[in-house]
Amino acid sequence: MKLLSLSGILGYGFSEEALKNAFIEPPDYVGVDGGSVDPGPYYLGKGVSFTTRDCVKRDVSLSLEPSLKAHAPYIVGTAGGSGSSSHLEWLRDIFFEVAREQGLSFKMALIYTDVDKPYVLQKLQNGKVISLGDLPLTEKAIADSCRIVSQIGVSPIIEALKAGADVVLAGRSCDTAIFAAPCIMHGYDPALAFHMAKIMECGSMCAEPISAADVMQGVIEKDYFELTPAHPKRRCTVRNVAAHTMYEQSNPYMIYEPDGVINLLNARYEQVNERTVRVSGSRFIPTDKPTLKLEGVRPLGFRSVAFAGIKDPETVKRIDEIFDGVCAFVRENTKGLLNGDDYTLSLHKYGVPLSKDAEAAEPAHDLGLIIDVVAKTEHSSEFVLSLARSRMLHYDYKGRKGTAGNLAFPFSPSDIHLGEVFEYSIYHLAEVDSLLETSEIRYINVGGSDDTLG
Fold it and tell me: How far apart are CA 405 and CA 361, in angstroms?
């Protein structure tokens, strides 16, 4: 069975040549990841995509029609970047638009993976929550959360495919689920299915030259799978394929999924020809305690930043002393207006000498700075940044020879207001009775005489 991974993320792009080559021998399924937690909590909190609409529409416009003509179901996971209902419906509307413009008709499955606060609270109270790090889960954290999603595995996607969906748009999903689901549904070894999915979900990242913006082909057989990039200028190598198996893994020999663990201790990688690698030997260990990851975010305040550069060696050497003085100045000048917990003022430094001894170390030739303010209100964020930036510009220190400004600003305006800030409030595993329990699947007939769009 042949599967295509269009790119690392829908909207990253791919070459039209690679796409055309991939359909010379038509695939059985086409998949692409739609998002990631890599850009941080903001996009889940705001309900917006980190990929632009034009980029996503371009990829869908080129790939949807050939997939439908080949009768290859088209699967997208973590729709819209973060996978909440807002993101899912944003991507749904792009597919609707492409369908209208190209005269396409198909059955679409939408897999909603949002969970509400009472669901998470019940899990917490029943002792069904497992921490993934140092972030504690409390009732207050749940109450403060503005959006919560569950990260599904293969089960909901299999349900949608069995129902005859031509297009499956899923909310927050494991990257592997997109490609492993059809393989497991057709009876292939889950170890091979998940292992192949883990490598090919990033497009041509396992090829040379590396690219997350091009098409990867995977063929799964009874005892092995093979990977070949669709673009003729790329080639899969044992080194790159094995390396990408370890991508984002805490243990290089284990891939953890909601359904179980893929043991890679006996995995074998072989160079079949110049551009193809064959993989075999992985083993699947089903779990006796299925879990789904929960991701929730809460608003933290509003951010304003100023970028600046310094070339003067004495200013560079004393930057920490200067910033301490700036913080004291801001505290003094906001007394009676802001409390200490109403804002945070931080300095991010780029180009600092590696030596911890500031007096002994040679000053950096150039030092880049970001003055960063997060405050409870937008007005407070702007107010504190203005005070900090102006004071830092003119701060006097022992040995200073001139009276000109300490900072050079690359942008005008110097103060940049970034709007709302979010932080993760929930990043935990929840033990579940069923891997379908957080999913709601809705079906829509798009185009044709039975169009259910109204």
Answer: 24
Q: How does DSSP classify residue 298? A: E
Q: Report the predicted TM-score, pTM, of the whole model to 2 decimal places.
A: 0.93
- d(CA 371, CA 436) in angstroms, rounded, equals 45
Element (H, E) at 95: helix 85-102
Q: Quote the distance between the C-alpha of residue 403 and its chain's center.
A: 46
Long-range contacts of 41-44 (CB under 8 A, 24+ apart): 41/297, 41/422, 41/423, 41/424, 42/420, 42/421, 42/422, 43/81, 43/82, 44/82, 44/84, 44/147, 44/149, 44/295, 44/297, 44/422
Decide if 252 contacts 263 (C-beta within 8 A): no
Residues 6+ apart with CB under 8 A from 95: 60, 64, 108, 167, 169, 446
SS3 of 169, please? strand
Extract the tokens encoding 407.
């900072």
Exposed e or buried b for every residue in 410-424, given b needs 16+ CB within 10 A?
eeeebbeeeeebbbb
CA geometry: angle 152, 292, 121, nearest 5 deg: 120
- CA–CA separation, 387 vs 383, rounded Å? 6
Tell me the two tokens of residue 85: 């209902």
pLDDT tens digit sequence for 219-278: 999 999 999 999 999 999 999 999 999 888 888 899 999 999 999 999 999 999 999 999
Q: How far is CA 123 from CA 139, 156, 198, 205, 370, in A?
A: 11, 21, 29, 37, 40
What is the number of other CB atoms lying within 10 angstroms of the CB of residue 299?
17
Cβ contact 69:153 at 8 Å: no
Tokens of 242: 């094995």
83-134 pLDDT tens trace: 999 999 999 999 999 999 999 999 999 999 999 999 999 999 999 999 998 8
d(CA 171, CA 152): 8
Q: Please, what is the angle between helix 190-200 and helix 238-245, to 10°? A: 100
